[in-house]
Amino acid sequence: MRLLVATDAWRPQVNGVVRSLEYMAVEGPALGAEVTFLTPERFRSFPMPTYPEIRLSVARPGRIAAFIEEARPTHIHIATEGPIGLAVRRLCAREGRAFTTSYHTRFPEYVSARLPVPKAWTYGALRRFHNSGRAVMVSTRSLAEELRGHGFRNILRWTRGVDTALFRPRSERAFDLKRPVFLYVGRVAIEKNLGAFLSLDLPGTKVVVGDGPSRPMLERVHSDVRFLGSLSGEALARVYASADVFVFPSLTDTFGIVLLEALASGLPIAAYPVTGPRDVVGVSGCGVLDTDLRRAALAALDIPRGRCRAYGETFTWRESARQFFSNIEMACEGTGPL
User: Fold this and answer.
1) Are 94 and 233 within one domain?
2) Maximum pairwise Cα distance, the chain
3) DSSP state for residue 176 in the 8-state scheme
4) pTM, whole model, 2 decimals?
């Protein structure tokens, strides 16, 4: 398989979409797949307001057509609904090429959090985009059910993984803070509902890893919280292993790879009972899902770390990649029912 992946989400962004695509490409050769990326790096682009790491590309159709012709892909996957994704979708429709898509982000909810745009309008546009492909991949069963309710068709599951060699329990501590330590890792932005965590009356210390447009305001309001900024690699892994509970306040994330990183590090989860945490934690006994986030955070302290690590080890990037490539073959080559 020679796969071309068209994506508007790419480095220097640090998020679940980029990480999923990168790990999928690494595993590709062992699964008989050669992956080429069509990203904003190949076009003139400009940063989004308050999201400078997200680049909107001026995706010129002629250059895209030439790139695809040179790559000679046997399959095309459109990962995002941005300028590059839209341009590749139009080209595929014009030339009668089969393609698949994936749904990563709840744009309707994110847009409505900032602008007076009805979610039904945005869902309508996304439905037309994804239904024009052979299949749309989603990370969880709950999200699949939600999208079916909005009229999406041909939905396939594509789970996620975690690097268990990097994210693991450790004896050394990254910081000396009053315990217990309640940790959040992710973008510091309005859609993450971070204020719901930071305003909780909890013992010990709250720690936030990540950056974003809401950070200056939240730092002013919550002076008792330790904001560590963006971390990656060993530095991030040490922070995970040094905390006691991972708190995930988001109500809109479609999955949350940070949940897997926390579990692999031996951290129990405290979250709301919504899509993402509900699918990842489920009945594993590795987290507490409650509409009262404070109650969930305190109850999670009693969960054994070894249980969380063992469960985290069941999520591998090899299995994630296997699902991804199998979905593409099944959708585009008719090797199974949709």
Assistant:
1) no
2) 61
3) -
4) 0.88
Residues comprising the chain, all counted: 338
Q: What is the rounded CA–CA span in Å between residue 110 and residue 119? A: 9
Vertex 159 angle, CA 51 and 318, to 5°: 105
Pull the structure tokens for residue 187: 């973008």
Count of the separate structural domains present in the chain: 2
The per-residue DSSP string of 104-169 comes to ---HHHHHHHHS---HHHHHHHHHHHHHTSS-EEES-HHHHHHHHHTT--SEEE------TTTS--
φ/ψ region of 144 (left if φ > 0, alpha if ψ in -120 to 50, else beta) reads alpha
Distance, in Å, from the CA atom of 185 to the CA atom of 197, rounded to the nearest integer, reads 12
Block mean pLDDT (10 aa), the chain, length 338: 95 87 96 96 72 64 92 97 94 95 81 77 95 96 94 96 97 94 95 96 98 95 97 97 98 92 98 94 96 98 98 96 97 64
Express each pLDDT in 8-27 by its tens digit.
Answer: 999 888 788 999 999 999 99
Shared domain check, 215 and 84: no
75 forms beta bridges with 3
Integer Cα distance of 251 and 230 in angstroms = 22
> Which residue range(s) make up the domain with 280?
181-312
100, 137 contact by CB (below 8 A): yes
The DSSP call for residue 228 is E
Average pLDDT taken over every residue of the chain: 92
Q: Look up the CATH number of the domain holding residue 188.
A: 3.40.50.2000
Instruction: Kindly state whether residue 192 falls inside one of the protein's structural domains.
Output: yes
Per residue in 108-159, pLDDT (tens digit) is 676 676 777 888 899 999 999 999 999 999 999 999 999 999 999 999 999 9
